[in-house]
Design brief:
Elements: H1 17-41, E1 44-51, H2 57-65, E2 73-76, H3 92-95, E3 103-108, H4 117-120, H5 126-145, E4 149-156, H6 159-171, H7 183-188, H8 190-204, E5 211-215, H9 219-233
Parallel strand pairs: 1-3, 1-4, 2-3, 4-5
């Protein structure tokens, strides 16, 4: 697990929007260079994002994927297992989404549901929970030995900030969809989730798949810190780009292709 080398108190100074957007754009450009390298070298990468409800996983993932190709950066956010999936090996439904060559799979929650919400809310047995904590590092060892780069992040949000974000979800129609049936019970079981977090980090932190913790009370800083760290973990180079010249339109088969659209159903132009 990434060691806390001394948390510097940033006080109440938040990044100005222009400063944040400038730095984010620079980092997103680097993600584009990483993308080209991953495609060229056929790398397979998985990045897991875990954390309490409201920790900022979705926003961080959006910051990573905003400017890159969804054919390379693929986000996976699985719903609750179906009745059929419940009869399979626990890891089986996740393996169907593992990366092929030239892909980066980003998990918005992962198989670590079993160590968190499933355990705390009673969706799995004690035997299943204990078995997961034993077997997860073993399975992840197979994953990394198969050549997949596996990176795990835990976003840590404070009690006060989580409460503030939940209240914002209740009031803001643009965020209300984020309020899940599990959010409110998770508030009541804060310390149960804390103990589950502690046990998970202790049992499943390994040399081949260590946990990296991200302080996420300040969303902007968390996103920049996380992207910077992610880029530092994957060796890549900026590949030279061939000069591109846009060809002129050919006049072969020329006709009035705008006239043929007259009378067609265009949407109203209100803006």
């Amino acid at each position: 697990m990434a060691k806390d080398k001394g948390h510097e108190d940033k006080g109440n100074s938040k990044l100005k929007r222009k400063e944040y957007e400038k730095e984010l754009r620079r980092l997103q450009a680097e993600l584009c260079h990483l993308q080209a390298w991953v495609k060229a070298k056929g790398l397979r990468i998985m990045v897991l994002f875990e954390g309490r409800d409201g920790a900022g996983k979705g926003g961080t993932i959006r910051a990573i994927t905003e400017r890159v190709s969804p054919r390379v950066f693929r986000v996976v956010a699985l719903p609750a297992p179906t009745d059929r999936e419940k009869t399979q090996m626990y890891i089986q439904r996740y393996m169907a989404h593992f990366p092929a060559a030239g892909e980066i799979v980003i998990w918005d929650r992962s198989w670590y549901n079993r160590a968190g919400v499933e355990h705390v809310m009673g969706f799995c047995s004690k035997e299943q929970y204990e078995g997961f904590l034993v077997h997860a590092p073993i399975v992840e060892g197979y994953i990394t030995r198969a050549g997949i780069i596996l990176i795990k992040y835990w976003l840590e949000v404070s009690n006060e900030e989580q409460e503030r974000r939940f209240e914002a979800r209740i009031e803001d129609p643009l965020r209300q969809w984020k309020l899940s049936p599990m959010d409110l019970p998770s508030r009541e079981r804060w310390y149960d989730y804390s103990r589950a977090r502690d046990r998970m980090l202790e049992a499943t932190d390994s040399k081949h798949a260590p946990w990296n913790l991200v302080r996420s009370d300040d969303k902007k800083r968390a996103r920049l810190n996380c992207i910077t760290h992610l880029l530092s973990l994957i060796p890549y180079e900026k590949l030279p780009r061939e000069k591109i010249k846009i060809p002129k339109r050919s006049n072969k088969g020329k006709y009035d292709d705008e006239a043929t659209l007259k009378g067609k159903r265009f949407i109203p132009e209100k803006y």
